[in-house]
Design brief:
Blueprint: H1 2-45, E1 66-69, H2 88-94, E2 104-106, H3 110-116, E3 119-123, E4 129-133, E5 136-140, E6 148-155, E7 164-171, E8 178-185, E9 190-193, E10 198-199, E11 202-208, E12 211-221, E13 227-241, E14 244-249
Antiparallel strand pairs: 1-13, 2-3, 3-4, 4-5, 6-7, 7-8, 8-9, 8-10, 11-12, 12-13, 13-14
């Protein structure tokens, strides 16, 4: 009798354990289902990120300036040989016939001509370049070889309200060739030359918001011995202090 009661108690305990395990399993299943439903709701509630219809365009770089000193439409210049500052030997050596107007190029910018009445001329084969102003010839640069004046702009570098000229010029040959910057002041009628130079490259100038910027450039000659400058890289700003020229590199 006692043995039967013991067996009944054991069966009852087993059913209780099975019931508890079943209840726990149902609870875990309900929790899992709830989490899945909430996850879907949250996912659907998040804003959908859509690509823009057109990608943002890359801003165009500021175009580099360029300069054109083409021979066409330039007035012929008939030099007065005795004002070129050449010796009789030099004139004889070059030949007077090679110094007549067809061998000179007028490269005066319109604003410079209007402001001062001067002309900037350069020989197409020699390194001689001049400012012709009020009947006087002012030599620009140095040496009789090289390309002579490359670029010229109207300026007021020392802010004295008197117009002046900034120019670059090339002189020398082969490995000694170099480019310098010159500053001609109409108040004194003299040029100041930069203490620095660029070897193996040409230099050009550009006024930008009241600042005078220096560029490295390439030079291309046309069939009439005019030329153009293609600006490549801005090097820095040209400034004046106590009548000296300085290049502030970028």
């Amino acid at each position: 009798m006692e043995q039967k009661q013991t067996i009944r108690k054991r069966k009852k305990g087993a059913w209780i354990v099975l019931f508890l395990f079943g209840a726990i399993a149902l609870l875990l299943l309900a929790m899992f289902a709830t989490m899945m439903i909430q996850g879907r709701i949250l996912q659907n509630s998040r804003p959908t990120v859509r690509p823009t219809e057109e990608p943002t365009a890359t801003p165009e770089p500021t175009p580099l300036p360029d300069r054109n000193y083409a021979a066409e439409n330039k007035p012929a210049f008939e030099p007065e040989l005795d004002k070129l500052g050449m010796t009789e030997y030099e004139i004889e050596d070059y030949g007077p016939e090679n110094l007549v107007s067809e061998y000179w190029l007028d490269i005066t910018p319109d604003d410079l001509r209007a402001a001062t009445g001067c002309a900037v001329i350069r020989h197409i084969g020699l390194g001689y370049s001049y400012i012709v102003w009020n009947g006087t010839y002012y030599r620009l640069g140095e040496g009789d070889d090289g390309k002579g004046v490359l670029d010229v702009i109207l300026s007021d570098l020392n802010n004295d309200s008197v117009p002046d000229v900034l120019y670059t010029y090339h002189f020398g040959t082969s490995e000694d060739a170099q480019t310098k910057i010159g500053w001609f002041d109409f108040a004194t009628g003299q040029s100041k030359l930069s203490p620095f130079s660029m070897r193996g490259d040409f230099l050009a100038l550009n006024q930008e918001d009241g600042h005078y910027m220096v560029y490295r450039c390439e030079r291309f000659v046309d069939e009439e011995y005019g030329f153009s400058l293609r600006f490549i890289e801005r090097l820095g700003e040209l400034i004046e202090n106590l009548d000296e020229l300085y290049l502030v590199m970028e």
